[in-house]
Amino acid sequence: MSGVPWENAALSAEQRLAVAADLGRQVRRVHALRPSGIVTDAGWPPPNVAAAAERSSLPPHLVEQVDDYLARLEPFDRVFVHGDLTGRHAFVENGRLTGIIDWGDAIVTDRHYELCQLHRAAFRCDKALLRVFLDACDWPVGKDFPRQALGLALHRQARGLAQHHTMDVFEPVAAVLPLHDIATLDELATELFAV
């Protein structure tokens, strides 16, 4: 793969936007695939999302809300997802995307599962990058988009702990947002994902 990981690239603000758009176009193509023989979330044992949230950077008052929050999610919009789009897995050269590596977490699940790693690890919670990505991806952004995105971030936390035992998808978020001052998970969803 030519280039370097996004997290190691010295990109200008304009180049970051261009790479976010490139990523959106590629993810749109990935989500349109109809793979066979790929694991689906239906094959997973039910995750204990609240217990996984307790092992994250979320403060206790937000963890207490997890079960009620998840009960309000929309039905899953299942597509083929990379599942671990981070700044290490998107390669860039000359200010453009050259490829995406590490497909070991690819799965068929809700499309919003894709966003957590990308938004926190590559975009560093920059909503301008998220908006450009979503537009290029032709992502269906409805009124419940922030709630669904955070709900699947909670699922990603649970899946990550099951795989790696040390996952904390909310650690970079805690560095950007004052989580102890955010009263509800809906408020956190808005802070993170409302575009």
UniProtKB/TrEMBL annotation:
GO molecular-function annotation terms?
kinase activity
**Is Transmembrane among the key words of this record?**
no
Residue stretches making up the Aminoglycoside phosphotransferase domain: 5-121
User: What stretches pass through the bilayer?
Assistant: none
Which Pfam families is this protein grouped with?
APH
Matching InterPro entries, A to Z?
A: AGP_Transferase, Aminoglycoside_PTrfase, Kinase-like_dom_sf
Give the superkingdom in one word.
Bacteria
Instruction: Provide this UniProt record's keywords sorted from A to Z.
Output: Kinase, Transferase
Listed PANTHER family: AMINOGLYCOSIDE PHOSPHOTRANSFERASE DOMAIN-CONTAINING PROTEIN (PTHR21310:SF15), AMINOGLYCOSIDE PHOSPHOTRANSFERASE-RELATED-RELATED (PTHR21310)
Name of the protein this chain belongs to: Aminoglycoside phosphotransferase (APT) family kinase protein
